[in-house]
Amino acid sequence: MRGEATVLHADLDAFYASVEQRDAPALRGRPVIVGGGVVLAASYEAKARGVRTAMGGRQARELCPDAVIVPPRMDVYSAASRDVFAIFRDTTPLVEGLSIDEAFLEVGGLGRIAGTPEQIAARLRERVRAEVGLAISVGVARTKFLAKVASAVSKPDGLLVVEPEREQAFLHPLPVERLWGVGAVTAEKLHRLGIHTVGELAELEAATAERLLGKATGSHLHALARLRDPRPVDTTRRRGSIGSQRALGSRARSGGELDLLLTQIVDRLARRLRDRERACRTVVLRLRYGDFAKATRSRTMRSPSDRTTVLLAVARGLLAVAQPEIAARGITLIGVSFSQLVRADSLPPELPIDWEDGVRLDAVLDAVRDRFGASAVARAGQLGRDPGWSTPLLPEHE
């Protein structure tokens, strides 16, 4: 087992809202909410008033009536993310992206040329602020899990190093919600059992944790509580899928609204497929019900495709199957991902007679959006609607 704290977890602070404050100086120091119908991001000034991501817009405005509400600008956020990841990769070649705004970096072995992990982390934070204009929090530890916890504890705009000899003293007093994988349902179950801190969970025997929480969850969380996380920073993974999701808040959604949201997501993802010259074989629908239970449905097509009409038809079929469950339980999140990606040039060539209008339409719309921006053209059903997007399920960068 490695004995040094050489893993960095770097996480941009209140990313979307911070980009808005960076680009509009008048917003600095003021509560900012990105997204109207549902909160996609909130500045720390808004968070201090109780505003949280995925909260309904009405509730957020009640908590913070003086908040400035801005529409999301995903193209700008993606550009900022690319700039930050360029700094990550200039710091070390060992970078594992987790999402659009966070990554793990392995800096072991750089001591002679770059200094200690803490010095490397401090320099990275300075560069992100100077070159991109954003604050970033960094945790440094021996394992990925502890580095991620450290960055969260250090927020906002902080740097925290967890040396190996004080790992237990750092982790065990923290609430169980800090464990990677503990959501609201698991936390409530643990609280009912009288377990409120990581240390209290670590005191259990592994078999007891598995019996109380289920074999997989219990084993995973118990291992983390006892400081076992052998995963290295993984730079070899190739993206096997792309996806986006939309938090919906708690109010009921009609079938028409869900179809519109699904269409927005598929439109966006299909364009990303074509931009990357990829096609997908499997469409996955991800749902979170009103009781916070999650469900996944998927369909694998006979042949890969990058056509919006084809992919949307498959996604709509999956949503139709799920509608009875949605009607009974409500829905708080909808997401789509495309998996089993292949290179578009590996697809068998089509005869012009098979092209259909959808292929030509995709090409024209892509060209218009490339030249005039993603919001230059939209479906008629989207006009006047909140164009908000939640954080992508997977990194926007390769």
From TrEMBL:
Positions that bind Mg(2+): 11, 101
Residues annotated as the enzyme's active site: 102
Pfam families assigned: IMS, IMS_C, IMS_HHH
Cofactor mode of binding and number, as noted: Binds 2 magnesium ions per subunit.
Catalytic activity: DNA(n) + a 2'-deoxyribonucleoside 5'-triphosphate = DNA(n+1) + diphosphate
UniProt xrefs under Gene3D superfamilies: 3.30.70.270, 3.40.1170.60, 5' to 3' exonuclease, C-terminal subdomain, DNA polymerase, Y-family, little finger domain
UniProt EC number: 2.7.7.7
Cofactor: Mg(2+)
Location(s) in or outside the cell: Cytoplasm
InterPro entries in the record: DNA/RNA_pol_sf, DNA_pol_Y-fam_lit_finger_sf, DNA_pol_Y-fam_little_finger, DNA_polymerase-Y, DNApol_IV, PolY_HhH_motif, Rev_trsase/Diguanyl_cyclase, UmuC
Every UmuC domain range: 7-183
Record-marked site positions (Substrate discrimination): 16
Keywords: Cytoplasm, DNA damage, DNA repair, DNA replication, DNA-binding, DNA-directed DNA polymerase, Magnesium, Metal-binding, Mutator protein, Nucleotidyltransferase, Transferase
Broad class of enzyme this protein falls into: transferase
DNA-binding found in the keyword field: yes
A molecular-function term among this protein's GO annotations: DNA-directed DNA polymerase activity
Keyword Nucleotidyltransferase: yes
NCBIfam families named among the record's database cross-references: PRK02406.1, PRK03858.1
HAMAP family for this protein: DNApol_IV (MF_01113)
PANTHER family: DNA POLYMERASE KAPPA, DNA REPAIR POLYMERASE UMUC / TRANSFERASE FAMILY MEMBER
Family to which the UniProt record says this protein belongs: Belongs to the DNA polymerase type-Y family.
Cited function: Poorly processive, error-prone DNA polymerase involved in untargeted mutagenesis. Copies undamaged DNA at stalled replication forks, which arise in vivo from mismatched or misaligned primer ends. These misaligned primers can be extended by PolIV. Exhibits no 3'-5' exonuclease (proofreading) activity. May be involved in translesional synthesis, in conjunction with the beta clamp from PolIII.
Subunit structure: Monomer.
Protein name: DNA polymerase IV
UniProt source species: Microbacterium terregens
